[in-house]
Amino acid sequence: MTQKDALRSGNEVSSMKAMVAGGMSGLVARFFTAPLDVLKISAQLKPRNKVISVHQSNTGMGISSFQISADDSFKGEKGKKNMTFLKYGRNGSDLISITKEIFRRDGIKGFFKGNVPGMSMYLIYGSVQFSTYSFLNRTIRLFKNDNLAPKYYESLNSLINGALAGISACIITYPLDVLKTRFVAIPSQNRESMIKEVVQIYKYENGIKGFYKGCGASVGTFGLSTALIFSIYETLTIFIEKNKEFSFAAPFVSGITGVLAKTLTFPLDTIRRRIQIMQAKNLEKITSESEVYKAYNMKKKFFSIGKQIVKTEGILALYQGLTVGLIKSAPTTAISLSVYQYIVNL
């Protein structure tokens, strides 16, 4: 018996059933991909370059602009007074080095850091995302079949509804995402309890706003990512249904969807990860490259921080961890969508 496509525009799925199925899909996906998530976030947070020396002028103190050349030599604004020059060198930010560092520092348990906020986040995120999508799918159809060709209007509805569902889930779960990032970054010997970390963020990082650093830009990223996931998934599914000669590709649709969505949005995700830790009061405990993050902290806007990352570390810094992100994304999306479809069709 062919399984019903529960995500198709206009299909009736109760909000409660979608919430339960979505929550379970999130938990199952997190269970299988937690170590990959830790590796991805660790790679995103690890600057490609580190401070290896500080050159201070005889006339005063200050911070210069800086950049990295191919041979790691320092290039600063020489000739100016009141300057302190930072020299940077390579930082062992490749995946193998990061894996060894996590294992040396925290052992096997290091690959499951942030699991409590992570599991909570996936549970709530999946519930909100799929229940919101189901509700919108039943009640809102912005594009009608008589206005557009049949193969397009369902994908457009999925795109809009998917974006709204992703934004809703992002806003609700963002504080858990911040906590997860902090716990992944902090070495075990420096880690506080989750309650103490919550209190510290609230007390020293501008109250509730401390839990939503980078959220504005993240809403756009999550919305875009979720919209791409639902629209690509539905577009490919509909294409295969209408072109039976491509039916062999049906089992790979979920995986392809995850890879495409992750690749297109990964640089934005890297910037928001950096934002989530760069204003932390205990920054020195979170990262040994605190000087790098302090330099980013002088940039207040999302894309200005992105430009600073490119300037000091190169364009590849925005894609650091993409490989493991793609490895994680394909099974995460495939498991999430497949478990949701299975439970809804029980």
Could you name the key traits of this structure?
346 residues, Mitochondrial carrier fold, two-stranded antiparallel ribbon, 11 helices, 5% strand, mitochondrion inner membrane, MCP_transmembrane, repeat, MCP_dom_sf, membrane
Can you describe this structure?
With 346 residues, this protein is mainly α. 62% of the residues lie in helices and 5% in strands. It contains 11 helices and 4 strands, in the order αββββαααααααααα. It starts with 14 loop residues before the first helix and ends with a helix. Keywords: Membrane, Mitochondrion, Mitochondrion inner membrane, Repeat, Transmembrane, Transmembrane helix, Transport. It is a multi-pass membrane protein. This is Mitochondrial thiamine pyrophosphate carrier 1. Solcar repeats lie at residues 13-139, 153-239, 245-346.
Short note summarizing the structure:
It is built from eleven helices and four strands, in the order αββββαααααααααα. The chain is mainly α and 346 residues long.
Strand order of the largest sheet: 1-4
Q: Which structural category fits the helices and strands?
A: mainly alpha
The CATH superfamily title of the largest domain:
Mitochondrial carrier domain
Question: How would you sum up the major sheet?
Answer: 2 strands, antiparallel
Which CATH class of the largest domain applies here? Mainly Alpha
* Helical residues, percent: 55-70%
CATH architecture of the largest domain: Alpha/alpha barrel
**So what's the overall shape?**
globular
The helix count comes to 11
Order of helices and strands: HEEEEHHHHHHHHHH
